Amino acid sequence: MENDIIFVGKKPIMSYVMAILTHLNSGNNQVVIKARGLSISTAVDISQVTMHKFMKDLKVSGIEIGTEELADKEGKKRNVSFISIEMKRQ
Length: 90
Hints:
This protein has 2 helices and 4 strands, in the order E-H-E-H-E-E. The protein has helices spanning 13-25, 40-54, and strands at residues 5-7, 30-36, 58-71, 77-89. The protein starts with a strand and ends with a strand.
C-alpha cells in the first residue's frame, strides 16, 4: 500500500495522471492520491481526468479528509487540511 501513494505538489496535472497510469499499467490495481492545502483541488482534478479520459474502469473506492498539525520553519504550528483519494480498477 505504501508504494501505491502519489503525493500531489506543484507539477502539472498531466504529470500526475501519467504517474498513475504508469503505476496501474505495471500490474497494480489501486492507487492513492494524497494532497494538502491548496493542492486539494488539483488532486480532485487528477482523479477525474484519469477516470473520465484515460481509464474508464477506474473508480473511487474511498475518500478521507482531515486536518494535520504541521510545524513551519520557525517551529510555529499550524493546521493544514488534507485529502486522500483511493482509486481501484473494477
